[in-house]
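Troubleshooting log. The previous structure file for this entry was overwritten by mistake, so regenerating from the original sequence record. Sequence copied from the archived sheet and checked twice against the printout by T.R.
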Amino acid sequence: MKWHFSQSSYGKNHTLSSVESTSILDDIERTRLDLELAYSGFDNVTDPDLIDCYIYEVNAVLKRYKYLLEQAAKMNMLPDEVLYTKTPVNVLTCQAFIE
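Regenerated output below.
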């Protein structure tokens, strides 16, 4: 599994440059794709050990996805329909923040 955290300072309060805003949106897109891959892997395995592995992977990617969405929301980079979703999985259907 590839990890896609960049080395930017998402949590700091400073003026957001266009490079930083692009970076967090890129991280969100890559993490969304990682989540789709993890779900796909989970759907295609039958071995109990691999099922456990994919469960942990899905949970880890969901946590990372949720964190990135929260950071983007703090920076006012997401539209309202994304901000009011209850779980990161609901956001998979919303492409507005990526475009």
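Residues 28-91 form one domain. Archived copy saved in two places this time.
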